[in-house]
Each structure stands twice: as structure tokens, then as C-alpha cells.
Write a structure and sequence with these properties.
The protein is built from 16 helices and 13 strands. It is an alpha/beta fold. The structure holds (2S)-2-hydroxybutanedioic acid (LMR). (2S)-2-hydroxybutanedioic acid binds near residues 13, 33, 132, 134 and 185.
């Protein structure tokens, strides 16, 4: 083996994070990884998480026993309701089976593994171009083929809707289509409701299989139900589908790896029985890979999701995060416009969620890193949460400079 294992490149995103940490320049700015920061560029433990943590740590019955293979039942059932809606007929009719996973990555992986083993119409997953870098390797690792559908239009810096629809129309029947439920990573560009309806219509007509990734519920609009609209619409339309759900961003539980995978069957007479069979197979996959999921993050999220007052506080915390990001979008755009930086910058406020796809080229990204110590991914994506009232002018000036060079 020694001779045949080639050296792999460092993960671009975590490599960027390490480079930022090493940088000793005082005014350095981290716009790399998608993790929320407060106005002092510090990680933010959500007040509701602190509260939940306090309650859990005082629980005299707390122990470190194994969770069930499918995870904490109160957590998975609350997660279903959060994403599908508390009154979802799919839940009431027993058409949903859910497993707690190692955050969104684990949920994508479990879904991919399941498709790879049990889904026969196709072994190809279509990913948006561009998409979260990890989607590609997660799907390849479970031996699914990947293909792309156009998503982002470089000229409008918005959705390439025609390109997307035409690729979906051409995809072979049965193909798996990975969709970002909201706050698309990396572009910050989402389809409108009308566009989602057309996407669903084409997918129905072409018999395509939806796999939703939802890592930013509450971050796009600040409203949890609104951010789940696309998924709920597809379920309403009777699709059988998969959902990978992450609590990393909306609870700030990044390192605790709290997430959930859901299979939702369509409304057929045998749906309940099929859901049971599928749940049983998912449990075997889970057991062989992680045995059972980690408890701490799920305990926190579960406590909040199942308590009316804590839930309301969580919504407040979410609005604080999404509100601060919106303020930073406005501040960055207006500063660039004030500087008369060549180009148009309205896309910064038009894009939503945690990221903005600035349109900076790889060359400009590397230059701004070398000259101004502003760190962003090579595709020109910036994590808006890295901006604050102390550094936004500095970043705008650095962008202005690199664009003029
Ligand atoms: C990101 O895209 O920055 C985040 O989703 C972090 C990650 O794991 O890639």
C-alpha cells in the first residue's frame, strides 16, 4: 500500500481557515468558512443554546449512555415537524422515517449511501453548478456518479433558470437531483416560488428524484416556515424524496454535529409499510457506519424544538443573526457604491443567506488575500457573517483596490 497511496491536497476550505489562523496581520479578515460571527468577529453561542445547556447540565438523570441507532426520538420527531410543518399529512400518515445524523454531511452521506444501495432507476446525482464543494466527494465516495445542472448566471449574478430547466428536461428519467432548499451555498441565489413550481413540474414530468439539502433554515428569510417552503411544496405535490437537515448554522452547533436525515414517501396506499421497510434498512446502514449518533447537540436542539418558550427565543436569535447579515450586505454594497468601485454591486443585497457570490475572480481573490489579508474562497464567495461594523470599510476598500488593478 505504501507505494500506491498518493498525497491528497488539503481541503480548500479548512486549509483556508488554517492559513487565516496563522496570519499575524492585525487587520486580517476571515470571510471564508460559513460560520456565524458576532460584530466583534467572534463565534456566537446562541443565548437559547446557553439556556438549554444550563438546563441539561442540571438534569440529575443525565448520563452518557448510547442513543438508539436512529438517534434521540424527541429530536428526530421535532426535526420532521420543523422541516415539513407540524401539521404535515406526510407525518400524520406515517410516511416519514428519520435518523439523526452527523450533521448535514452525515445526512447527505446516509442518503447517498441509501440511494447507492437501493435506488435502481439511476446512479447519477445532478448537482447545481456551483454547489457546496463537499457534495461532489460525498456522492462519489458512495459510488454515485455526479453530473451538473446550470444554476448561476455570471452575467446577471442571479439564477440561470432557463439553463437549469433545460438540463432537468434533458436528464435521464429517474436521475437524482440535489436541491438546496434555501440560502444556496455558495451563491446566495434561490429560485422564487413560481420558479420552484416550474422546477417541480419538470421533475414530475421527467420522473426525477428530489434530494433536498437544508442547512440554512431560518437564515434565508429569518422565518423558519418560509425557508422550508420549497420542500413542503414538493411533499404537497406527492413526491417521494430525501432531506438532509443540518443544525450547524441555525443553532450554531457546528462542532456538535447535530443533523437529521428524512425519507418521505409519496401518498400511496402502501406508503406506511414502505416507509417501515426503508427505515429498517437505513438503521442497518447507520449501525455499520456510526453505530449511533452523538448525543449532546441533539439534546440541545431537541430541548429547544420541543419547548414553546425556548423555541420563541431561538427564533429571536435567528432573526438577530440574519438581521446582522442583512445589515452587512447593505453596508458593503453602499460602501462599494460610494467608492464608485467599477461594476454593479446590487447583487450583494439581492443574494440571501450566509453567503455572497461577489463575482471576484480567482486571481483577485488571491491578490486580496496576499495584499489585504482578506480571506475568501477561490470562487469569490464571501461569508457575510465575517463582516462587521469595524471591518466592512476596510474590506470594501480592499475590494475596490483589487477590482481597479
Ligand atoms: C461552508 O460551506 O463554509 C460550510 O458549509 C462549512 C463546510 O463544512 O464546508
Amino acid at each position: 500500500t505504501e507505494a500506491v497511496v498518493p498525497l491528497a491536497p488539503e481541503d480548500p476550505l479548512f486549509g483556508l481557515m488554517a492559513a487565516y489562523r496563522k496570519d499575524t496581520f492585525e487587520k486580517k479578515v476571515d470571510l471564508g468558512i460559513g460560520a456565524y460571527r458576532d460584530n466583534n468577529a467572534k463565534p456566537w453561542v446562541l443565548p437559547v443554546v446557553k439556556k438549554a445547556d444550563d438546563i441539561i447540565s442540571k438534569d440529575p438523570d443525565l448520563n452518557h449512555e448510547y442513543l438508539p441507532i436512529a438517534g434521540l426520538p424527541q429530536f428526530t420527531s421535532a426535526s420532521q415537524k420543523l422541516v415539513l410543518g407540524a401539521d404535515s399529512p406526510a407525518i400524520k400518515e406515517g410516511r416519514v422515517t428519520s435518523l439523526q445524523t452527523i450533521s448535514g454531511t452525515g445526512a447527505c452521506h446516509l442518503g447517498g449511501l441509501f440511494l447507492s444501495k437501493f435506488y435502481s432507476p439511476s446512479k447519477t446525482v445532478y448537482l447545481s453548478n456551483p454547489t457546496w464543494a463537499n457534495h461532489n466527494q460525498i456522492m462519489s465516495n458512495v459510488h454515485l456518479k455526479t453530473a451538473q445542472y446550470p444554476y448561476f448566471s455570471a452575467s446577471t449574478r442571479g439564477l440561470d433558470f432557463d439553463g437549469m430547466i433545460s438540463a432537468l428536461s434533458d436528464a435521464p428519467s429517474g436521475s437524482i437531483i440535489l436541491l438546496h432548499a434555501c440560502a444556496h451555498n455558495p451563491t446566495g441565489v434561490d429560485p422564487t416560488k413560481e420558479q420552484w413550481k416550474q422546477i417541480a413540474a419538470v421533475m414530475r414530468e421527467r420522473n426525477l428524484f428530489p434530494f433536498f439539502d437544508t442547512a440554512y433554515q431560518g437564515f434565508a428569510s429569518g422565518d423558519l416556515a418560509k425557508d422550508a417552503w420549497s420542500i413542503r411544496y414538493f411533499v404537497e405535490q406527492g413526491f417521494e424524496l430525501l432531506i438532509a437537515q443540518s443544525y450547524a448554522k441555525n443553532f450554531g452547533l457546528y462542532g456538535e454535529r447535530a443533523g437529521c436525515f428524512h425519507f418521505v414517501a409519496g401518498p400511496s396506499a402502501s406508503a406506511q409499510e414502505a416507509t417501515k421497510r426503508i427505515g429498517s434498512q437505513l438503521a442497518i446502514l447507520q449501525r455499520s457506519e456510526i453505530s449511533n449518533p452523538p448525543a449532546y447537540g441533539a439534546r440541545i436542539a431537541s430541548l429547544v424544538l420541543n419547548d414553546k418558550d425556548l423555541f420563541a427565543l431561538w427564533e429571536e436569535n435567528l432573526r438577530e443573526m440574519s438581521g446582522r447579515i442583512i445589515d452587512m450586505r447593505k453596508a458593503l454594497q453602499s460602501k462599494l457604491e460610494e467608492l464608485k468601485t467599477p461594476g454593479t454591486w446590487n447583487h450583494i443585497t439581492e443574494q440571501i443567506g450566509m453567503f455572497s457570490f461577489t463575482g471576484l475572480t480567482e486571481k483577485q481573490v488571491l491578490k486580496i488575500r496576499a495584499d489585504a489579508h482578506v480571506y475568501m474562497t477561490k470562487n469569490g464567495r464571501i461569508s457575510m457573517a465575517g463582516l462587521n461594523t469595524n471591518n466592512v470599510d476596510y474590506v470594501a476598500q480592499a475590494i475596490d483596490k483589487v477590482v481597479r488593478e
